[in-house]
What does this fold into?
Amino acid sequence: MAAMVRLEGLRHSFGSGVNRRQVLQDISLCVDPGEVVLLTGPSGCGKTTLLTLIGALRQVQEGSVQVFGEELKGASRVARLKLRRRIGMIIQGHNLLRCLTAEQNVQMGADLLQGLSYRARRDRSREWLRAVGLSDHLGKLPHDLSGGQKQRVSIARALAARPQLLLADEPTASLDSRTGREVVELLKGLAKDQGCGVLMVTHDPRILDVADRLVQMEDGQLSNGAFAIE
Amino acid sequence: MLGRIWQGRRIPLAWLLLTRQPVRLAVALAGIAFAGILMFMQLGFRDGLFDASVTIHRLFDTDLVLISPRSSSSVSMAGFPRRRLVQAMADPDVEGVTPVHWNLLLWRNPDTKATRSILTLGFEPADPLFTDPSLAPKAKLLQDRGRVLFDELSRPEFGPVAEWFRGGRTVESEINGKKVRVAGLVGLGTSFGADGNLLTSQETYLQLLPNTPPGSIEVGLIRLRAGADADAVVERLKRDLPDDVSVLTKAGFIAFEQNYWRSSTSIGFIFTLGAAMGFVVGCVIVYQILYSDVSDHLPEYATLMAMGYRLPTLLGVVAREGMLLAVFGYLPAYAAGQALYLLVRNATQLPVSMNLTRALTVFIMILVMCMGSATLAMRRLGDADPAEIF
It folds into this structure.
């Protein structure tokens, strides 16, 4: 099966001249469909930069990034934008729209789907909110939700857009162990049932066991290649 | 088709952004409404004043008007040979003419004996002058020498003429030092140039102003046959008559007067400037509101871009916010404008009222104001970097 994400010799740096700082050095990594890959490492080691590159949010400088078989190096804005619609992103800061209710926030994700009626998109949003355990909070504004609830709304929003690849940055950070577990199981189920690729950055030792593969990163390099834990 | 559009609808982000921040929305609407009211008032005053300058002009029963090219406005009408009017009669489309004398004369207030300029029109009482049919029977009263018809809508400074007359008193006064008697009252209205009006016969007029050159009049009214092409007659008369007269349509005569007040006085400039200031104030307020709105939501916009929303979609959100602000700011401005016009009409007798042109003008100004501000605020969206969201 073709890899969903294939990185080869990826390098990235910020700044220029004396201030130039290499954050990624020669990274090679694959994520297959249906595979859950966990990325761990100390903060500041370049994990987030890696996610933004795979998420087509940043221009690739050197090396190759292929997502769904498409080369991102040198890809146009429009091509990257189209690609982003197929990628779900779960962000630590969640960035929910403050003026929208939980349900409407999730529907902003569902609204990206073409050819679905308003009602279908709304039902889809409600379903995903139910799946993350928030069916009682549909009409609440982010303001009235706890940090963990907001995080779950953000997860539902990413999933409602029917992504083929999920990039998650500390999805369980603000969740208690039980809901954190549920959310991770949900993502895992999604990977298994729908062949969705999942790349998750985490520090949470409680969830390491869901990973098909655990990747460690240090100083912009994958420290010990990739090893499988079975 | 409609059903499909309805089913294809998205979350109304612009609407929700505005309405879920009621305080900010209220401030924005108040600002826009204020700007709108300011524009309504200034433009209303301006048009009202211009309208007021042609109160008399509108009353004439005429299709074309001859005046001297040396006339600059109703307060300085020059004479031209009455013969020209007779020559105009030669045109097959001309049905009738009325020669009119027109000047500002000094009227003595019969009560206080103070004098004041009053617009006096002298005409042949048998000739039609105004479209108002109630004038003809009164004009007969002017056939006696030294009789005048007094405009009861004249300013009170001319004396309690109307009250006295209605009270059955014989009202006599002096014009240019010659004795006249009020034979009746008419309702014409004041204008810029004239605080009051007086009608009299040609004969009396020439007595009051004995120095008038013989055969000279200030205004010539020309009535055309029904169905005649006024513009074509104007062209013919311009060609046939010597250039010591100007040939105007009635609308041209009105425009001539308004143009004087527009271009030769600062009224137009002052009120247009006032309206422009309202526009600028509104722009600043709307820009402030939209700019801070975009700034406040920048991370959220970046997230939407990361999710795959296109920049034009987001620009559309800001544009729709501007549009909504324009519409909802205009409504209270319109209502307040109507109310203030009523107030002004009652307080000043100025013919200030809402008309479609002004209602549209102000709406378009507000729309331009809001959309312009929205366009400027959109530049802030360029700062939304989806790479910064993680």
Q: What stands out?
A: Chain A has a mean pLDDT of 88. Residues 96-162 of chain A form one domain.
